[in-house]
Amino acid sequence: MPGLAAGTLAPADTVNVRLRAPLNLDPATAEHGTVRVRTSRGDSETVRVTETGTGALDFTGRIPALPEPGRPGDGTLQLMPGDTVTFSYGLGAFTATATLKVTPAP
After folding, report:
1. Within 13 Å, how many C-alpha atoms sit on residue 92's CB side?
2. Are 103 and 15 in contact (CB under 8 A)?
3. C-alpha span between 100 and 44 (Å, rounded)
4. Confidence band (pLDDT; 50, 70, 90) for 63?
5. Which position has the higher pLDDT, 47 or 81?
6. DSSP of 50-86, one letter per residue?
7. Which residue has the higher pLDDT, 99 or 106?
8. Could you report the per-residue pLDDT of 9-59, keeping only the tens digit for each?
């Protein structure tokens, strides 16, 4: 089953996304997947994740984040302290999700 790990983040972080999933269809090629990201304030973005090496189960990607109101689909995740962020991958019964809270910047 695919897996997403969650932690905490501050509003102006770059959000690093790590997905573990059996997407290795060609062992000679670093493949890609998509993780959906939604915030409790209405922002919705997709993050392209890339296989960490040929034949790997881990995929990584990143998306910039700014402390602003949400603008869905602009390629930047808008976050404010207290927001809840949900990451998801897959479809239907095969969907994996991870949720985290945005903390104030130190």
Report:
1. 1
2. no
3. 15
4. very high
5. 47
6. EESSTT-SEEEEEEEEESS---TTSSSEE--TT-EEE
7. 99
8. 666 678 888 888 887 788 888 889 999 999 999 999 999 999 998 888 899
**Could you give the dihedral angle defined by the CA atoms of residues 49, 57, 91 and 8, in that order, rounded to the nearest 10 degrees?**
-60
**Residue 92: partners with Cβ closer than 8 Å, 6 or more residues away:** none
Q: Tell me how crowded residue 70 is: count the other CB atoms within 10 A of its CB.
A: 20
Q: At 93, is the secondary structure helix, strand, or coil?
A: helix
Angle ∠(82,6,53) on CA atoms, nearest 5: 140
Using CA atoms, how far residue 83 sits from 1, 25, 29, 86, in Å, is: 27, 36, 37, 10
